[in-house]
Every structure is written in structure tokens, then in C-alpha cells.
Amino acid sequence: MSTIVSIQIGQPTDYLHEGHLDGNQRTWTTAFFKRPIAGPVWVSRTNIAGDRQADAVNHGGPDKAVLAYSADHYPFWRGHLNLPEMPPGGFGENLTIAGLDETSVCIGDTWRAGPVVFQASQPRQPCWKMSRRWHVADLAKQVIQNGKSGWYLRVLTEGELAADTPLELMERPHPAWTVSQASAIFYRRKDHPAAAAELAALPELSTAWREALQSVRW
User: What is the reported pTM?
Assistant: First the structure.
């Protein structure tokens, strides 16, 4: 059974960054550092109560209301990165989920967790902030290469959610389009135009990914 093992929220916060070649100390703003909450917490169509994004252009909104990440990936990352204390939420996710990953979640999947109904809308595109968070320069690149990216969820039915809530698959309209497969095609879309066009045609795919796929000139 798949289960939400923890819920995390965060607010945009300034952090010190000392990685500049000129030696000057500067700050960067991010909501990537998230703290766990036991719940119950209200999940709306645009976010989880108490959670905000520093970059509202590329994060958040109805298509990316909630970020999910597999709890099953953490043993790998803790060993691979020599970060034994890396906690759930370490990849900036709102929901850390046991029993699911990118190979077992499909675009358009509808999942129920208590009263809340989610829909998988797109894979997560890792950015430089995760690299800076963990001081691993190529971490975002590693995530793209190994596919341990996480995925975004729409909220179809709002409600209160708590940790330790099981997830129930209600509908799977596109079983061939796992999050893993969608990522693989997205990053190689110029090499696979027919598959990219098929992915772009999925009505449940996020608007941002559909536009990115349709903008490619073959």
C-alpha cells in the first residue's frame, strides 16, 4: 500500500551563499527548505496551507499545486551523497510517499488520500536550488539522469490531509505514460517527435509541459 509518510511546507526565506568566486557573501531566496507538519492541514487547489514558492513563475499554481517525492529514494540518496541525515522533504517536496515512484505513477493518475483527490500533471524538473541546498554541484543533473525526480499533483478535491494517510488509485487513463517515460521523452523530445507529440496531446499534462513540447521545431 502507498502511504503519505510525511507532509512538508515552507516559506520563501533568505539564506547565506558563500559559493561565489569573488569571495563575497550573498544571499539567495528559496522555499526549498521545508519543515514537516503532522497535520491535519488544508490542501487547496493551488497549494498546501502554509506553503509558498519563492519563484511563482516556475513553481506553484493549479498544475503544480503539490510536489510529491518517493520516500523509497531516500536510502539511495543518503548513501550516494554521504548524507545519512537527509530527512524527508530533502528534495523540497510537500508529500513524501512510500510505495510509489516515477515508474509506478502515470500522467493523469487520480489518487485519493482521505478526502483529498490528486491528479498527476507532470514530472518535476529539477533546478539549481537542490544543488545549492545540498552543496552538490551536479545534483540536478544526476536527478535528470537517474529519473528520481518526483512529480507534481493537481488538487481536484480540496480537503484536510494528515501524515500516514494511505493513497488509493482511482483512475489511470494513460498507463503507458509513467512519470519516468514522460521525463525521458521530454528531455529527448527533438529525437522522438512522434512520442513527444503523443505526450503533448495528453489532456491531463500540465500547460507548461504541453507548451514546451509544442514549441519544438522538428
Answer: 0.93
